[in-house]
Recover the amino acids of this structure.
């Protein structure tokens, strides 16, 4: 039995299939850190702890957290998808183009989601059928999809979306300040969490991330699973594109430029190993919230944006390096009595 | 490993397409389409409020300057102007902004300012619509919003400070040229691209104004340097060969004027063919100093920032509401009047020459 000594009421992460010997479930460190940060910021940063600010903060995090869901699954299998933000941009541009062409939004949204699936399938096909490394493939499609977005819409912006839709995108639940979109996002978080942590599919993803060969020999269709993960990531990124367009009320080819780095930052900060095979979803959500909260709090105390980028970078490196150092220290301690 | 396109998958894909087509056709009848929603109000929100021209500007107004991006020389100069104005009215100046000029990056900064309770937000929009809802929230939180340089949708701000009118830009360039060539002779225009809207508007107005004011000045041609240094350089060379009697070149683009100046300064035409247009002091300094260029024009971004800050303070104090015809004092720059759609025009562009160019750094 372990005793939780964290002072804050951090909910323990749903136990990821952690390797034996690890005492803490993946993500619990970052969740504790998030709670500590929120408490400190609430007392020391003027204007941080208010319903309005919570709303602003969550609106900034929504798309990052959304895309992080399927991308976490991809990273767990040891792959990566860097084209997510370009998919957001291309889907936003296509949404604008179709809207100008006179299609109803009720048709545009499903079409754009299908497009996202196709874009994801291209990634998945190149990675799983041609055996190319996902890093190389998705750097390519990162440029390709963004380029296509500019072909579709150029440097124009389409902005006359119906008010009812754009105000819904930034509306909040009653007077709580919590954005309405957090509700469907939470549903997706729970869904993804269940798939990753409580189903054979989820376990097979960790197996692939630890050893693809072993996974294949134990009867897992690695290629097919990964292909579908890329398709789902494409669809979810397209959903992100639709939401982004409505939230800012502006369809543009350069929408969400650079967002992929924020999503990957949230995932790594959340304790998911970039080499695959370990990590959990709760940590990722905590990572996204921590990045958003840090930015928000620093902005409120008028820290310039250049410094914000430096802080984010340092935070990220710390998050990636710290577990490595911890593991090495632990390894040395264990080895010493034996030698 | 199985092939990607098995018959089962093909069938699955077809089903997907069929579903998409069905969604499309059903939604096409009776969905939300473009043109139905005319709900966006173009009116001025402040219409109900009344202005009190004699109201005092309260001390300690929190005035925030939000440029398209930080570390951009143009906006740094504008910020200097705003900061000076805020100092004069005993306000609190702050500059915040994103490090990249993307459409949505300004939104979280506006949200932060709303949360901090800023009294005035001075901003240049990266996208006319993307920051609209954030500005709406800021205004309902009590902030006055002034845009400068790049406007938003007029419904989302109180005032827009326009750097110069098209007429002002056209007339200043023709007057500057006329002064240098004695109001007579052949003049050519070196523009950016053939379909650049602002360039074409200026060229049209320049031609009209020249014909009216300086009948002996003949605008012989317009060539296009596409805002590329190399091409502008070659076009200048071509102009001088085609028109041996050419007296002057007007280039209403910062890329064109500096390329033309570079060509002239190294050629036999230096000092014989006049060059003017729109350029920045830093880019043109060496050519003014070596005598290639006598005078050129551009609006002064420092004045732009200065005026924007005073306009914001006047709004916050209640001296004006943003309605057409209201007037306010803008420190050293004097009195300004609000025009249609809440637009305030800074005035004539500033003419830079050997005497004043060293006062400017942008």
């Amino acid at each position: 039995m372990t005793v939780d000594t964290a002072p804050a009421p951090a909910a323990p992460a749903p136990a990821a299939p952690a390797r034996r010997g690890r005492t803490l479930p993946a993500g619990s460190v970052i969740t504790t850190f998030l709670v500590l940060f929120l408490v400190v910021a609430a007392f020391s940063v003027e204007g941080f702890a208010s319903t309005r600010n919570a709303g602003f903060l969550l609106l900034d995090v929504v798309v990052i957290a959304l895309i992080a869901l399927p991308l976490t699954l991809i990273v767990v299998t040891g792959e990566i998808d860097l084209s997510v933000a370009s998919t957001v941009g291309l889907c936003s541009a296509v949404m604008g183009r179709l809207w100008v062409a006179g299609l109803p939004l009720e048709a545009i949204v499903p079409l754009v989601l299908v497009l996202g699936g196709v874009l994801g399938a291209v990634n998945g096909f190149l990675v799983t059928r041609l055996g190319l490394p996902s890093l190389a493939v998705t750097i390519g499609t990162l440029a390709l999809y963004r380029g296509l977005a500019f072909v579709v819409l150029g440097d124009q912006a389409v902005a006359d979306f119906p008010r009812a839709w754009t105000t819904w995108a930034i509306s909040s639940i009653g007077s709580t300040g919590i954005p309405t979109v957090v509700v469907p996002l939470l549903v997706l978080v729970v869904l993804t969490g269940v798939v990753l942590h409580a189903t054979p599919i989820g376990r097979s993803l960790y197996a692939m991330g630890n050893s693809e060969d072993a996974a294949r020999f134990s009867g897992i269709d690695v290629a097919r699973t990964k292909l579908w993960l890329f398709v789902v990531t494409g669809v979810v990124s397209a959903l992100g594109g639709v939401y982004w367009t409505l939230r800012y009320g502006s369809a543009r080819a350069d929408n969400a430029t650079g967002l992929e780095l924020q999503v990957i930052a949230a995932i790594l900060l959340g304790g998911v190993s970039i080499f695959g095979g370990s990590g959990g979803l709760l940590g990722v959500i905590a990572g996204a919230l921590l990045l958003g909260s840090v930015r928000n709090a620093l902005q409120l105390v008028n820290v310039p944006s250049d410094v914000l980028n430096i802080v984010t970078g340092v935070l990220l490196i710390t998050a990636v390096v710290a577990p490595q150092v911890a593991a090495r220290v632990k390894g040395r301690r264990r080895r010493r009595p034996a030698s | 490993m199985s092939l990607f396109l098995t018959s089962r998958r093909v069938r699955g894909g077809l089903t997907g397409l069929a579903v998409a087509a069905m969604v499309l056709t059903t939604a096409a009848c009776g969905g939300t389409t473009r043109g139905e929603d005319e709900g966006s109000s173009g009116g001025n929100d402040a219409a109900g409020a009344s202005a009190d021209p004699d109201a005092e500007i309260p001390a300690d107004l929190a005035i925030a300057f939000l440029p398209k991006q930080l570390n951009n020389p143009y906006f740094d100069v504008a910020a200097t102007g705003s900061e000076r104005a805020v100092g004069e009215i005993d306000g609190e100046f702050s500059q915040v902004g994103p490090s990249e000029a993307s459409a949505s990056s300004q939104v979280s900064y506006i949200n932060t300012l709303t949360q901090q309770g800023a009294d005035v937000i001075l901003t240049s929009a990266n996208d006319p619509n993307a920051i609209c809802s954030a500005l709406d929230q800021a205004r309902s939180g009590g902030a006055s919003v002034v845009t400068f340089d790049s406007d938003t949708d007029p419904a989302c701000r109180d005032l827009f400070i326009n750097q110069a009118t098209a007429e002002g830009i056209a007339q200043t360039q023709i007057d500057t040229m006329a002064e240098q060539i004695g109001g007579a002779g052949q003049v050519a225009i070196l523009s950016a691209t053939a379909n650049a809207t602002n360039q074409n508007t200026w060229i049209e107005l320049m031609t009209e104004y020249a014909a009216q004011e300086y009948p002996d000045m003949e605008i012989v041609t317009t060539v296009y340097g596409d805002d590329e240094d190399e091409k502008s350089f070659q076009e200048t060379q071509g102009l001088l060969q085609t028109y041996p009697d050419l007296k002057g070149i007007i280039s209403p683009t910062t890329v064109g004027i500096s390329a033309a100046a570079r060509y002239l300064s190294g050629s036999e035409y230096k000092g014989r063919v006049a060059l003017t247009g729109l350029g920045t002091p830093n880019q043109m300094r060496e050519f003014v100093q070596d005598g290639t260029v006598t005078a050129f024009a551009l609006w002064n971004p420092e004045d732009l920032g200065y005026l924007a800050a005073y306009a914001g303070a006047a709004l916050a104090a209640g001296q004006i509401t943003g309605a057409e015809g209201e007037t306010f004092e803008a420190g050293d720059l004097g009195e300004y009047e609000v025009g249609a759609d809440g637009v305030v025009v800074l005035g004539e562009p500033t003419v830079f020459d050997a005497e004043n160019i060293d006062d400017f750094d942008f």
Observations:
- Chain A touches chain B through 52 residues (CB under 8 Å).
- Confidence is low (pLDDT under 50) at residues 1-23 of chain A.
- Residues 55-256 of chain A form one domain.
